[in-house]
Design goal:
The protein has about 500 residues and is of the alpha/beta class. About 40% of the residues lie in helices and about 15% in strands. It is flat and about 120 Å long. The termini are far apart.
Length: about 500
């Protein structure tokens, strides 16, 4: 498969510049006409396999890859016209690297891959002239909200249609690539089509570099998404938010009218569905300029101009490989956020699937290990899922105190396990893992606190305390006496008394 910048170039010539001659595009790009035809007709731009099987790219080059990587990394600081080409890399290797005996083609393939990773490929931008039906503008705004009574400082994405003044919102915990792509995909599917072009500012979520002359280098994932849905991205000049004034205005309007008072809900996913319905209802108001025409009446022209949705939806999740430390943890976002995997995957590689709400950790065989709520905010934060750790140590209770897991446990849990009998410790750890699996680690920790208070140091007592705290079983009230039930006299204490009571003679 060609690199995304080459595919983008082919499709821009055909769709953006109206060059409908496949042979002419083939001549300009130097590619075979069959290849050009393939990518002109292509509709699915999902990665073939987000988590491909482990393979070593160009293994024959392994001894020389660190040297090539260092040259290309230095290129990021050099002017564009003074960067290494594949041919220059090949010549330097022949001259400077002892024992080099690889072909030029092998070097070219590796340099091409590495340049894509380092964002050293140049991409083009677009400068539209005006807004027509079907064109849109995208932007993020900030808003607080309550989910399950917990307050969050979040971000919401707005897709505004300047022609009709229609707009649609999606709320998230933060602003990243997953939030952007999930928002756009949800809105596209809700309105039943795709805008012909969308204006953006130069957010780092999309733009990796602004090129002199108006071009932009954008992330490969955004390029895939854009090509998959077929819209044309338009980027404002730096510090020129007024160029997409419709979206800027809609950000404020959405906050004042849809998020005052602060939204309160149980599930963000359900609220986002309701938010789209609220945006539909908002289309019924009069247009601020074309009264008495409503926004909905003008939005019909926007709908008519929309591009069709692709047959196959786009996978908006991000995938990456992370390496865990000796405690089975890894970091994301340049070390700001720490997530746990499991002790069984300590000091090893794991796959990580990123969505706007979750971080799912998987083995290299793509088997799920644990799922976290995704972390947001400016502070360094850690998300610890204890279930894999408790299950692991329950199988080896004798090694608890010598394991790194023991030191990671909260103080109350360490105190409780220290007081337990050695013979019970494995069963107690298994019980704690079961309680964690049912209602979370916090509930297991609260049960431990109660067990310490009552000096209950066996697994059955621990289970009973958990039921009292979390099983929602109401305590039975004391039985009340009922009228009509005779009071009982004192029962006889000897056999002769029983004989007298029964009216019989004494036993022989």
């Amino acid at each position: 498969m060609l690199a995304m910048d080459q595919i983008h170039r082919i499709r821009q010539l055909y769709y953006g510049q109206g060059l409908n001659n496949i042979s002419e595009i083939s001549r300009r790009t130097g590619l075979d006409w069959k290849t050009v035809s393939k990518y002109v007709d292509m509709t699915d731009f999902n990665e073939p396999d987000p988590m491909p099987a482990e393979q070593n790219f160009c293994p024959k080059l392994d001894p020389f890859k660190p040297l090539i990587d260092s040259w290309l990394a230095e290129d990021k600081k050099a002017p564009r016209k003074q960067r290494h080409t594949a041919k220059r890399v090949f010549k330097r290797l022949r001259k400077e690297a002892d024992g080099f005996n690889c072909s030029y083609r092998l070097v070219a393939e590796y340099v091409k891959k590495k340049k894509l990773e380092l964002n050293l490929k140049r991409k083009e931008g677009f400068i539209p002239l005006n807004h027509s039906p079907g064109e849109a503008q995208g932007d993020f705004g900030a808003a607080d909200f309550y989910e399950n009574s917990m307050r969050h400082s979040g971000k919401y994405f707005v897709l505004d249609f300047p022609y009709s003044n229609g707009g649609f919102l999606q709320l998230h915990y933060g602003e990243n690539m997953e939030c952007l792509l999930e928002s756009m995909k949800a809105i596209f599917e809700h309105i039943g089509g795709v805008p012909t072009e969308i204006w953006f500012d130069n957010t780092r979520t999309i733009v990796t570099k602004i090129i002199r002359g108006g071009g932009r280098e954008v992330t490969e994932r955004f390029t895939r998404f854009q090509e998959h849905y077929g819209f044309r991205p338009v980027f404002c000049n730096p510090d020129a938010g007024n160029e997409k004034g419709g979206a800027e205005t809609k950000v404020g309007y959405g906050r004042r009218n849809l998020m005052v008072p602060l939204p309160r809900f149980l599930s963000l996913a359900q609220y986002n569905k309701q938010l789209l319905m609220d945006c539909d209802a908002d289309l019924e108001r009069e247009h601020y300029r074309f009264k008495p025409e409503t926004i909905e009446e003008r939005f019909r022209a926007d709908r008519k101009a929309l591009l069709s949705l692709p047959e196959k939806p786009f996978d908006t999740a991000g995938y990456l490989k992370a390496h865990t430390n000796n405690w089975g943890k890894f970091t994301l976002d340049e070390g700001k956020y720490t997530y746990s995997a499991s002790p069984g995957h300590a000091d090893s590689d794991v796959w990580v699937k990123l969505t706007a709400e979750h971080v799912t950790v998987m083995s290299l065989d793509q088997e799920p290990i644990v799922t976290h709520r995704r972390l947001y905010g400016d502070e360094e934060t850690e998300s610890m899922e204890w279930l894999p750790y408790l299950k692991y140590i329950a199988r080896k209770p004798r090694s608890l105190r010598n394991s790194g897991i023991y030191g990671m446990m909260p103080a109350d849990m360490r105190e409780y396990l220290d007081k337990c009998e050695n013979s019970d410790r494995g069963r107690i750890l298994k019980t704690l893992s079961e309680l964690t699996e049912r209602t979370g680690f916090d509930s297991a920790l609260q049960t431990v606190g109660q067990a310490i208070a009552y000096q209950a140091m066996d697994p059955d007592s621990l289970k009973n305390l958990y039921r009292r705290l979390f099983a929602d079983v109401p305590p039975l009230p004391p039985l009340k006496g009922q009228d009509g039930i005779p009071a009982l006299d004192q029962m006889p204490s000897g056999l002769s008394d029983y004989d007298a009571l029964l009216g019989r003679g004494c036993c022989p």
